[in-house]
Amino acid sequence: MTESVPAATSGPEEPVASHSGLPGLTGLDHVGFTVPDLDEARAFLVDVLGCEYLYELGPFQDPAGTWMTDHLAVPATAVMRNQWYRCGDRAVFEVFHYETPDQVPQPPRNSDIGGHHVALYVHDMAAAVAHLHRHDVEVLGAPTVSTGPHLGQRWVYFRAPWGMQFELVSYPSGKAWFLDRGAGGGTGAGH
């Protein structure tokens, strides 16, 4: 039995930002991405990355209407489930799984339009990379040592089992751009 499409809701009242741009913008709320297998994603996100599983919604479908197309830009016949995860004290991931006949199974490369990655801040790059290797995660090269505005930062990309790229980032003593602007560093905030 599937649930009906979710009703539109509004978020909490937010103060109006004192800058130009999107009125009321206060920060990033969550990152959503689509996976081929929710069980595989849950094992990776919880057992390897250490995210906290929160809950699941769905399945949702609206085969007789256009809700899926109008609100999510997917085929009207799609069936969707999603799971929510907290990662550390900041990131919330909304992880989707769709059943649709025209799905492209390969994730985009960084060089493709729509290419992307999710960057996770760690305090100890060497320990984090060693952990990924112990879990047979594909790490792309060795951690870099950045220069210029990113002086003080190290980073390395890695792949989830379904091919999506993630990045580890570390600058425990700050990085030049934040230090030069007086914003401080070393917390991972602002990356």
What does this structure look like?
The chain is of the alpha/beta class and 191 residues long. Helices cover 17% and strands 29% of the residues. The chain has four helices and eight strands, in the order E-H-E-H-E-E-E-H-E-E-E-H. The radius of gyration is 19 Å and the shape is globular.
Outline of this structure?
By secondary structure, the chain is α/β, with parallel strands linked by helices.
Spell out the blueprint of helices and strands:
Layout: E1 31-34, H1 38-48, E2 52-61, H2 67-72, E3 79-87, E4 91-99, E5 118-121, H3 125-134, E6 139-145, E7 154-159, E8 165-170, H4 176-180
Parallel strand pairs: 1-4, 5-8
Antiparallel strand pairs: 2-3, 3-4, 6-7, 7-8
Order of helices and strands: EHEHEEEHEEEH
- The secondary-structure class comes to alpha/beta
**Which residues form runs of ≥5 with pLDDT under 50?**
1-12, 184-191
N-to-C span: 42 Å
Radius of gyration: 19 Å
List keywords for this structure.
disordered N terminus, 191 residues, single chain, 4 helices, 4-stranded mixed β-sheet, alpha/beta
